[in-house]
Amino acid sequence: MKKLASAAAIVLGTFAFAQAGSVNTVAQTGDNNSADILQKTGVGNHSNQSTQVGDQNSVLVRQSAGLNKTTTYQEGDFNQATSLQGHTTWGSNNKVIQSQVGDWNKATAEQYQNWDEYITQVQDGDGNTAHAYQIAGARMYADQIQIGSNNTASSSQTAVGPSVPTWATNNDVDQIQMGDHNSAAATQSGWGNDLDQVQVGDYNTMSAAQDGIQNMSLQYQEGDWNIAAITQSGDDNEGTQSQVGDGNYASMSQTGDENKAVQAQAGGGNTAYALQSGDLNIISGGQYGDANWASVSQTGSMHSSVYSQTGDHNILTNTQSGTGHSSISSQTGDWNVSTVTQKQSGHTHTGTQSGNGNSILAVQGN
């Protein structure tokens, strides 16, 4: 067994490692730190660099087949970083970089079968948690950055083996949190999916799940106490949600192929629901003000729904089923109500409300 290792342990710092054909560097400064590194199997070009500054920190790195690289940096006390990479016969270019600054942070990264899987997790502050799992592999990238304290981020990507076409194997997750007590979760299964989530503020929650081929999700939160969720199943779906303000709620679900939905909220206490089941449907909605409520449900194919709410306490409900309906709704003012139901095929609705306390009820089709 070939060993190339350099380690410094000051005051009760301990480490243990076993290697096969790799380079390892461990530096520990502080008290009661621990590092456990295992790098083995002949086909891996392993490399590890671990640095711990502070007390009671722990690092565990295990690397097997593939061109592996792990860099871990921890500064503060009671931090943990765990990195596990490919342990099958078809690993490739693996990378994990985890940096934690502060106390009581935890970062876990696991890459199973690989091809080009990269994970980068950066945490700044205290009490942050980040998980990234990329199990079956192909080409997957996950970046999670948390600036602040008590934030939580979790990412999981599952694809298939090396037999899938190379043009469709890129799953990518990017999650960025700036503030305190934010939570973000991302799950992808399939090929060519892209998921981006950004949180700026405190106590925000967002989640996204995608299953299929070449789906895209984008969520942005700025403010406090916002909640956003996207679920997509099928191929070539796109979902975008933006929240600026406090206490907003947005939920989006798309099942089928080539559906698109956009929901934007600016203000406080707004609620928006978007549900699409079928193919080639479009929802575009905006809420600008406070305490507005909107729900759009489309079942079938080639529906289009566009709405805007400007003001406070407006309510909009739009339900479309069948094929090829179109609805455009505009509410400006306060306490307006619009209810639209379209069935069968090819109906069109346009409704405009300006002022306060107006009401629209429209039903088309049997």
UniProtKB/TrEMBL annotation:
It comes from the Bacteria. The keyword Transmembrane helix does not apply. InterPro entries: Curlin_rpt (IPR009742). One of its GO terms (biological process) is cell adhesion. Pfam families: Curlin_rpt (PF07012). Residues 1-20 form the signal peptide. Residues 313-366 are annotated as: Disordered. Keywords: Signal. The keyword Flavoprotein does not apply. One of its GO terms (cellular component) is pilus. Belongs to the CsgA/CsgB family. This is Curlin. It comes from Chryseobacterium lacus.
